[in-house]
Design brief:
Elements lengths: L2 E4 L2 E3 L2 E3 L4 E2 L4 E2 L4 E3 L2 E4 L3 E4 L7 H11 L7 E3 L5 H4 L2 H7 L5 E3 L1 H11 L5 E3 L5 E3 L4 E6 L9 E5 L4 E5 L18 H16 L3 H13 L6 E4 L10 H10 L7 E6 L5 H16 L4 E6 L5 H10 L2 E5 L9 H13 L5 E8 L5 H11 L3 E2 L4 E4 L4 H16 L2
Parallel strand pairs: 8-9, 9-10, 10-11, 15-16, 17-18, 17-19, 19-20, 20-21, 20-22
Antiparallel strand pairs: 1-2, 2-7, 3-6, 4-5, 7-8, 12-13, 13-14, 14-15
Helix pairs in contact: 5-9, 6-7, 8-12, 10-11
This protein binds MU-OXO-diiron.
Length: about 400
Amino acid sequence: MSFHIKNNVHWVGKIDWELRKFHGDEYSTHKGSSYNSYLIEEEKVALIDTVWTPFANEYVENLKQHIDLEKIDYVIACHAENDHSGALPELMRHIPDVPIYCTKNGIKSLQGLYHQDWNFQVVKTGDKLSLGSKDLIFVEAPMLHWPDSMFVYLTGDEILFSNDGFGQHYASEHMFNDLVDQNELMAECIKYYANILTPFSPMVTKKINEVLGFNLPLDMICTSHGIIWRDNPAQIVEHYLKWADSYQENQVTLLYDTMWDSTRIMAEQIAAGIREADSTVTVKLYNLAKTDKNDVITEVFKSKAILVGSPTVNNGILVAVAGLIEEIKGLKFKNKKAAAFGSYGWSGEAAKIISERLVDSGFEVVDEGLRLTWAPDEESKKRCKEYGHAFVRKL
Ligand code: FEO
């Protein structure tokens, strides 16, 4: 299977409708994904990226339907992660001498993964590779999101091959952004940014401004996952600039786990208090033990503040809460406020532990949090609502 993209450019990747977990079990892919590989057949023929390892044989067989592999002059490896390089060993078994163009770090990563001495050619920002009447121009993009990552621009067709950048885990048979459900598409884009790119936001801003500074005309952005941006491709660039700039919406999210419902009742009463105090704010609640963590992280990304709750168990906090805080620590969220809450029977350390970990994770903790004993009675529920009122005043 292949899709015509523009002139002599074809998509020759793999749409993975079955994928439900990515990066091992780290990232939920409710709508599948795709591993996009592109074949450019000018006077010289270049293949950009491959697909994930389980599809290596299928990929090479499919590629053979489209082109005699001996006609491939250059392989471009924009990023060594397995989902794009996984078919390289099978491909290179057929064309062992064809040069692989990648960054210096790309060689390290590819050799580390596959232990092969392929014909690597190092490229850096500004280097050009002639395909005849058109050129490929390389742009290194270190830490977006691996040290080896790079973009490639095709002159003449004005296509930016952005690898992971601007992608989404979103399977579609329609390939182009104007042909898919826009709400689904943007939901997957923001989830992808929140969960994968947030820690690299300063580099996102810098790299986008650097590429914009080249003043290259842009007709399409061909990503390595999901759809291709052909209708107003600048729109996703604008979203990235916004998301990279300490993004927040007028939203407060309550995240908790509960054993016998007391902490859940606290969450609901605090939420009611927030709504009473500010009817314009979007308030959302998630039980962390029951909710997909990547969806929760997306909601944290959208929030201006979060409240995190756990009962006290063995002088500590519940594992679903501890796990989520560990995740968000690594994501380095900026410009977000937070506080803790929780019910307890006797020792009651949870709120303090959560507060400390939130500070450690870069959140501005606005107060000592709310601790209540046993099951909330009417007086305790009133305290929760009042706490919600007070929390809004601190945002
Ligand atoms: Fe899609 Fe970083 O691999």
